[in-house]
Amino acid sequence: MLLQIEQVTSWYGKNEALKQVSLSISKGSCYGLVGPNGAGKSTLLKILASIILDYQGKIQIANQPNGSQKDQIGYVPQEICLEQNLSAISNLYFFGRLYGLRGKELRKRAAEVLEEIGLSERGKDKVMKYSGGMKRRLNIGCALMHGPKLIIMDEPTVGIDPQSRSYIFQMIARLKKKGCTIIYATHYMEEIEKLCDGVAFIDQGKIIEHGAVNELLQKHAIPSVFVKGNQALPEELDRFGKVTNHHGGYLITTNTPIPVMEAVLHRYQDEPEELIQLEIVRPRLEDVFFSLTGNELRDDKKALQEQAMGGKW
Ligand SMILES: Nc1ncnc2c1ncn2[C@@H]1O[C@H](COP(=O)(O)OP(=O)(O)OP(=O)(O)O)[C@@H](O)[C@H]1O
């Protein structure tokens, strides 16, 4: 394990923002932290990054005594934290100096990071001329200057275009390949499915479930078979699972999709042209969250997506 979080509890005044949070995160993994607004994600990440120092519990990075983790961690805050009047290179120099880099070493590292975030050609431009996506990438770059082994990203894809999102995903894959560990907080389940090996669901300051993404899908969510056609459904399908109307067809929620599909194919064998669609619908992490909490991840999902994408998701 690279990181052990044990029984971490934290307050803002009387508001208990984190309640006995415990997690183990292995080296070289990308670990997702998902939860609705106000769940406690940012608070946990700020504690890990030593921005919030007042908490109860224990945080241990492998081979580091408790409390000396700062240099091992790169923190990408939710808000863009850049000096708009300076160039990308100057911003990188600033963060590099904070971590003790100087002279040749500082310049070399800034050039490497610019390359890594795909901004080498624009390094001398002022940040104010950058698009939202470029600023996000530079925001990440600043956290990479000191070569941390644990990188904490707090919703790094909010407000960016699809190309920059995809670029950030590729960066994360490269960082993982180099052996870095990433903790990635987001509202977007599809990002977790794409990027993460493990995930923790957090709600009202508590971890409500955690584990490998595939295991959680298997444990909590049931696949379905979608059938659309001009024949009535075979009656025996009722015994395989719940049948609901869905998009002009039927959805049979079942742990045994193959016999369901066989029964449907049997029904249509003499008139196959009458069968319009037959497919297994795999469960999504969104379904797992819903089955655990009874809530959608976000009531304001659409609003935030629209804000993020300027209407285009
Ligand atoms: N600076 C603060 N002062 C007082 N309360 C705060 C502060 N920051 C967060 N909180 C409260 O702590 C709880 C956890 O907030 P936190 O920002 O960690 O959640 P989050 O999951 O990151 O939410 P979001 O997705 O909206 O960023 C919420 O009830 C929030 O209102």
Characterization of this structure:
- One of its GO terms (molecular function) is ATP binding.
- Keywords: ATP-binding, Nucleotide-binding.
- Residues 3-229 form the ABC transporter domain.
- It holds the Pfam family ABC_tran.
- With 313 residues, this protein is an alpha/beta fold.
- It has 2 domains: 3-218, 3-Layer(aba) Sandwich (Rossmann fold); 222-282, Alpha-Beta Plaits.
- It has 10 helices and 13 strands.
- The chain has helices at residues 41-48, 88-98, 103-116, 132-144, 162-177, 189-195, 213-220, 257-267, 285-293, 301-309, and strands at residues 3-12, 15-25, 30-34, 56-61, 73-76, 150-154, 181-186, 198-203, 206-212, 224-229, 242-246, 249-253, 275-281.
- A 6-stranded mixed sheet has the order 5-6-7-3-8-9, with helices on both faces. Strands 11-12-10-13 form a 4-stranded antiparallel sheet, covered by helices on one side.
- A hairpin with a 2-residue loop joins β11 (242-246) and β12.
- α2 packs across α3, α4 (132-144) packs parallel to α5 (162-177) and α7 (213-220) crosses α9.
- The longest helix has 16 residues, at 162-177.
- The model is unreliable at 300-313 (pLDDT under 50).
- Bound molecules: adenosine-5'-triphosphate (ATP).
- The site of adenosine-5'-triphosphate (ATP) has 11 residues, from β2 and α1.
